Amino acid sequence: MLVSVVPLIVGIAAWPVALLADRWGRVKTITAMAAIWCVATALCGLAQNHSQMLMARAAVGLGEAGYGAVGAAMLSSVFPAARLSAVLGAFQSAAVLGTVLGVVAGGVIGARHGWQAPFLWVGGASLLLVLLYPLLVREPPRAAVLAATAGSRVALWAAMKEVTMARSARFTYVAGGLQMLVLAAIGAWMPSFLAREYGLAADVAGVRAGLLFLMVGVGMIAGGVLADRAGRERGRTRLHFAGVYTLASFAVLTPAFALPAGPLQMGLLFVGTMIAGGHAGVVLSAVIDVTHPALRATAIATVAMVSNLIGLAPGPYVVGVLSDSIGLKSALTVVPVAGLFASACFLLAARNYERDVAAKEARLER
Description:
- The N and C termini lie far apart (48 Å).
- Residues 147-152 have low confidence and may be disordered.
- The protein is globular.
- 86% of the residues lie in helices and 0% in strands.
- It has 16 helices and no strands.
- Helix 4 (84-113) packs antiparallel against helix 5 (116-136), helix 4 crosses helix 12 and helix 8 packs antiparallel against helix 16 (337-365).
């Protein structure tokens, strides 16, 4: 419950918070939600029982719901469309790197100063960034004008219609969520898998799993760069690349988990996890391409909502249920099949992409 409540709240709150950002301003929203995250993280270290910890963790999810999606929208207002897959892939890879560093640093600090210390230290120190952010970052002029002239007049129902109107966006939302299920399952269960299959101590298994999961971040950056370069002439080519990434992740990870423990299995796991993250930047850039510029944060929040509700939140639980029935190794062998369905959704999104972009341009001209 303590783990799953964060993606659950992110999935529920990301959309209304992002709609607020499109109306109120992205810099203000990022600052406010990051402040909530910092205070909530510190409160985790002050929790005296499970109920208090659960409420603090839910508040962490509320803060994360704001600055993640809105931060991606900020970047989309600064960088040109031809580079968005790479930029947004790098943005998401930073979260992967932070997660790994947080686990390692939290373990070291907690071992020396108690489990409460990492929450208090991280929450308190991060408030410095919250104070600095609005002083160093300004609302992009183009985004500010769009928000003032369009976003403030967009009704709730109209916003919902806009971010779900394009068929390519709908297929992309689902594709991203399905692939995120694979990544969530690997991230949650890889330490246990390595401990059981390779006989490693828990701390050693955790470090190796962290190094393995860092490959997801590498894949997010490299996959976005390759997709951008290939899609300079036709934007839908980026979606084709995302389809190839997710299909390849299924083709590599399935036999990797099925193999016996050894160097070949580890090699395939490193390659498979890297490929599995390649789609991340494409998901965000493709959705942005077919959505009104004044509602970019809302569109990205829709990606976050779907990814959390059908990927991050249920992924570890699904593997746990399967593991109880067929064993962890078999459960992890089955899960990558979600990438096969994600690939099909990306290819369907590509078929509708050009038409949806043209329809958006026509709406902007009216």
